[in-house]
Write a structure and sequence with these properties.
With 713 residues, the chain is α+β, with helices and mostly antiparallel strands. Helix content is 37%, strand content 14%. InterPro entries: Beta-lactam/transpept-like, Glyco_trans_51, Glycosyltr_51/Transpeptidase, Lysozyme-like_dom_sf, PBP_transglycosylase, PCN-bd_Tpept.
Length: 713
């Protein structure tokens, strides 16, 4: 007898064919687990599932925390230090969060009628629908994608939007019996924890409606330019109809005919279920689509103002490195973009704006030379300013030839944050004499007082062995002073104030360059350049040129390092954040990571010498003249710092500080380092920092430098 002539088994839900019967026998192992879950679904809505949580060896009903009243993905907001000024948003989905009473009955009824007419009767799984779908589809490879209740669909949505990798996203919606069983188990457990109203609200706040709209609030705006409460029955039906396939039924960029047909199907279901009378259904179907398309207000990672872009970019990179926010950078970024955090940053908008103006007054945006500055707060490491005469932009395509090399197409005036903070690809810029601070600190740590006097010639033949070059005498390094007039006896006050190279090279010979390097590392200086790193790791005691700043660094590193001095030697790792409010109302406080990098007396002695270059004058010694006396003239308060100029004027620096702010500024051509800045630009970092610290002192003009009581004479 052929299969076609055999009697067909009858069940309460319809006939089973021979083909379906064979497929069912093949799926008995999975069906056992499946049947247990379905059996649970037959329990009354009020029944508990307690001890029946296990199906097979898997806790399919052990509900993950994120499924219990999970917040829908929300953009995170980054505020300035005042906690009020929005400087950036991070989000990848446009949605408008609604409460249950903000969703009209027409939307609820259209959804239930179309997607799950037994929603208010079942306890998460519709057993009749599931069994019918299983028998109908089991011959097609053992998959069952029909009969998903609204609760099951919501489970799938949550698993998808909480996924942080492409693999997790795929697993959340893969077409397998195993996934379906787990989905049903979660749905049963979910209805133990959430009310029907909460499930509907969360579902309608998360489901995708196409054209960038997530949730019914966003969909009403994108398609009709109105809030959900103002939707007509026909409009509600059209939007609910999109849920099944937003692309197929897209009335804006797809087929309005398909959208109309789908809308009418939804209306018919509302009539069938009894939510509408026949006349009301006909009235709704007679209505035109009446679209009023609006642009989806999709948020994305980015600053509200381009001047904040460098800080915002640094913040995002910083966030991705915080292990407390997840096991991988992908997870951490997903939480930033979907977690709805309200984050208070360290950016001082008032000082940032003043700093940007100070920089532009020296070199306008569009100059081939980059002039940038970072301000760090002593004692906390808070990054208050990141300003540079560049446009923050990820579009660094060719914008014109660099004037130093007509064959080179540089990115200016567009660039991104590593210009100020560095990364694996951006090493920074030679800091010149601003590195003399680390040799002075090492000498002070070794017990040498500020009045340590050394005769310093115009040129000095050091003990450090180097290769051939302009600074070599035979095979020895023979640095010169900036001027032939710089000859005579110098101490730390005068040597630092006039930036006498041969004084500090001899000081390094006495204390050891390796000790100076150690101080620099304790103060957060990172060696990103491989050549610099090789010297530091393999032969630091012979790295004589380190003293005069041949290594590359960044304004962020230098500002944070110098910030330790007015903080009595406490170095704090730079941070862009003070606190964050989670979308569940919790507060995360970010503590500063600080260490006593140098002793209090060493720091105070160094500050006293650093007052000389600015013209502010030392408390315990005599300064002669300073290399940046315009700084004290501009700042109406205590100020110290150090200039830095490299060989052939390739770059120029100034790092200065008041009792409550440290600012580092540099000028260089980042697109062509061999395009030296020249003498005309040498004073511009000091001028910019002078204006920045003057503005800072007006904002917070408190405190003073404490003179050293030791290490003086």
């Amino acid at each position: 007898m052929s299969d076609s002539s055999k009697p067909v088994a009858q069940t309460w839900f319809g006939p089973i064919t021979a083909v379906q019967r064979r497929a069912m026998f093949a799926l008995v192992p999975v069906a056992v687990a499946f049947g247990l879950v379905v059996g649970l679904a037959f329990l009354p809505v009020t029944s508990g599932i307690g001890g029946l949580a296990k199906v097979g060896s898997e806790a399919v009903l052990d509900l993950p925390d994120e499924l219990v009243l999970p917040p829908a993905p929300e953009a995170s907001t980054l505020y300035a230090s005042d906690g009020k000024t929005v400087i950036a948003t991070f989000g990848d989905q446009y949605r408008v969060q609604l409460e249950y009473d903000q969703i009209p009955d027409s939307v609820i009824q259209a959804l239930v009628a179309t997607e799950d007419s037994n929603f208010f009767e079942h306890n998460g799984v519709d057993p009749e629908g599931v069994m019918r779908a299983l028998v109908t589809n089991i011959a097609d490879g053992g998959t069952s994608e029909g009969a998903s209740t609204i609760t099951m669909q919501y489970v799938r949505q949550v698993l998808s939007y909480t996924a942080t990798t492409p693999e997790e996203v795929a697993a959340a919606s893969e077409v397998t019996i195993d996934r379906k069983v787990k989905e049903m188990g979660y749905a049963l457990a979910l209805e133990e924890e959430m009310s029907k109203e909460d499930i509907l609200t969360n579902y309608l706040n998360t489901v995708y409606f196409g054209n960038g709209a997530y949730g019914i609030g966003a969909a009403a705006q994108v398609y009709y330019g109105k809030v959900p409460a103002d939707l007509t029955v026909a409009e509600s039906a059209m939007l609910v109809g999109l849920i099944q396939s937003p692309s197929v039924y897209d009335p804006i960029n797809g087929s309005s005919e398909a959208a109309l047909a789908r809308r009418n199907h939804v209306v018919n279901r509302m009539v069938d279920v009894g939510y509408l009378t026949s006349d009301e259904g006909e009235t709704a179907k007679a209505e035109d689509l009446n679209l009023n398309p609006q642009e989806a207000n999709n948020t994305s990672g980015g600053a509200i103002d381009s001047d904040y872009g460098f800080f915002v970019d640094y913040f995002e990179k910083w966030w991705e490195q915080q292990e407390d926010f997840g096991d991988s950078e992908e997870v951490r970024k997903a939480r930033l973009y979907r977690g709805g955090y309200e984050i208070t940053s360290t950016l001082n908008v008032e000082l940032q704006d003043a700093s940007q103006e100070a920089i532009e007054n020296q070199l306008e945006t569009g100059s081939e030379y980059a002039l940038g500055s970072v301000v760090v707060e002593p004692g906390t490491g808070a990054i208050e300013v990141m300003a540079v005469n560049r446009n923050y932009s990820n579009d660094v395509s060719d914008n014109g030839p660099n004037t130093a090399n007509s064959d080179y197409k540089g990115s200016y005036p567009n660039t991104t944050n590593p210009l100020l903070s560095g990364n694996a690809d951006v090493n920074g810029y030679q800091a010149g004499s601003s590195f003399k601070m680390f040799t002075m600190l090492a000498a002070l740590e070794a017990g040498m007082p500020l009045d340590t006097t050394i005769y310093s010639p115009y040129q000095y033949t050091s003990k450090y062995i180097v290769g051939d070059g302009e600074a070599a005498c035979g095979n020895h390094w023979c640095p010169k002073n900036a001027s032939q007039s710089e000859v005579g006896n110098y101490n730390m006050w005068t040597g630092f104030g006039e930036s006498v190279n041969t004084y500090f090279v001899q000081l390094a010979e006495r204390v050891g360059v390796d000790k100076a390097i150690d101080v620099a590392e304790r103060l957060g200086i990172k060696f990103r350049n491989q050549q610099d790193l090789g010297h530091v790791e393999n032969n630091p005691e012979s790295f004589g040129p380190f003293v005069l700043g041949v290594t590359q660094t960044t304004p962020l590193d230098m500002a944070a390092a110098y910030a330790a001095l007015p903080a009595d030697g406490v170095y704090c790792k730079p941070t862009p954040v003070t606190s964050a409010l989670t979308n569940s109302g919790g507060t995360i406080a970010f503590a500063s990571e600080c260490d006593q990098a140098v002793s209090v007396e060493v720091a105070r002695a160094a500050v006293d010498a650093a007052r000389c270059p600015t013209g502010y004058g030392a408390a315990e010694g005599n300064c002669t003249w300073g290399t940046a006396e315009q700084v004290s003239a501009a700042v109406d308060g205590p100020v110290a710092g150090k200039t830095g100029t490299t060989d052939s004027n390739s770059t120029n620096w100034f790092v200065g500080f008041t009792p409550n702010a440290a600012a580092a500024a540099f000028v260089a051509d980042p697109d062509s380092p061999q395009n030296y800045v020249g003498k005309s630009n040498l004073g511009k970092p000091a001028n910019a920092v002078a204006d920045i610290l003057a503005a800072q002192w007006e904002i917070n003009g408190e405190g003073d430098f404490t003179p050293p009581s030791e290490l003086v004479h």
